[in-house]
Amino acid sequence: MTAIEAPRSGKASKSQVKYSRNKGSGSKFEMFAWLFMRLSGVVLVVLIFGHLFVNLMVGEGVHAIDFGFVAGKWSSPFWQIWDLLMLWLAMLHGTNGVRTIINDYAERNGTRITLKTVLYIATVVIITLGTLVIFTFDPCAVGADGVPLQGSFCPAP
């Protein structure tokens, strides 16, 4: 019968040693990443529930969400910043979580580097595109048929 050593007994098996690649690196990055996950999680809860409340509970609820609704919201700098914070925090929070999973489960260095490179590129692309959409969105645009897509927030033509 094989005995299982008590945790922190100082005796590590071969499988336990293999996963200690970050130990002793002297970097405080993992501590900051851990702290970021906790703080961003709390802020994200507030941002997401605020977003859901405004979009689903106020006014006509989900039936009112259309181009005009989004255009009206994004005509306010407050909602642009709110949605920008939600986008950035959600993407960075998720990227950090997936990075941790990759570190835990990708055993070969080449696989780990490839997966993390793809993850970081996808994160940068999504954050860049999302930021551009939020700040370059034209709520008073003209539709494909030449008819202005105007709401009460647009100046008269």
TrEMBL record:
It is a multi-pass membrane protein. The chain crosses the membrane at residues 31-58, 78-98, 118-137. Keywords: Cell inner membrane, Cell membrane, Electron transport, Heme, Iron, Membrane, Metal-binding, Transmembrane, Transmembrane helix, Transport, Tricarboxylic acid cycle. Residues 1-23 are annotated as: Disordered. Its main location: membrane. It comes from Psychromicrobium silvestre. It is found in: Cell inner membrane. This is Succinate dehydrogenase hydrophobic membrane anchor subunit. It comes from the Bacteria. Membrane-anchoring subunit of succinate dehydrogenase (SDH). It holds the Pfam family Sdh_cyt. One of its GO terms (cellular component) is plasma membrane. Pathway: Carbohydrate metabolism; tricarboxylic acid cycle. Its cofactor is heme. One of its GO terms (molecular function) is metal ion binding. Gene3D superfamilies: Fumarate reductase/succinate dehydrogenase, transmembrane subunit. Residues 12-23 have a biased composition (Polar residues). The keyword Ligase does not apply. One of its GO terms (biological process) is cytochrome complex assembly. InterPro entries: SQR/QFR_C/D, Succ_DH_anchor, SuccDH_FuR_B_TM-su.
